[in-house]
Amino acid sequence: MKGTKKQHLPQKICPVCGKPFTWRKKWEKNWDEVTYCSEKCRRNKN
């Protein structure tokens, strides 16, 4: 993803807050497993 403009990065929708979130470098190795946009949403998933 190096050198890719922000508008061209992959996005997902958070199932808790319903907001779209964009790929981040820290999720590079496990992007397929990322479901929530933040730690707060992950904790409040119920």
Short key terms for the protein model shown above:
2 strands, 1 helix, two-stranded antiparallel sheet, UCP037205, 46 residues, alpha+beta
Largest sheet: 2 strands, antiparallel
Strand content: 5-15%
Number of domains: 1
Which spans have pLDDT < 50 for at least 5 consecutive residues?
Answer: none
Number of helices: 1
Secondary structure: number of strands: 2
| Rg | 11 Å
Summarize model confidence as the mean pLDDT. 91
Oligomerization status of the protein chains: single chain
Computed structural class: alpha+beta
**Spatial order of the strands forming the largest sheet:** 1-2
Terminal-residue CA separation: 33 Å
Order of helices and strands: EEH
Helix content class: 10-25%
Shape: elongated
What does this structure look like?
About 0% of the residues are buried. Strand 1 (about 10-15) and strand 2 (about 20) form a beta hairpin. The chain has one helix at about 40-45, and strands at about 10-15, 20. The longest helix is centred in the C-terminal third of the chain and has 5 residues, at about 40-45. It has 1 helix and 2 strands. The termini are far apart. The protein has one domain. With about 45 residues, the chain is of the alpha+beta class. It has a two-stranded antiparallel sheet with strand order 1-2.
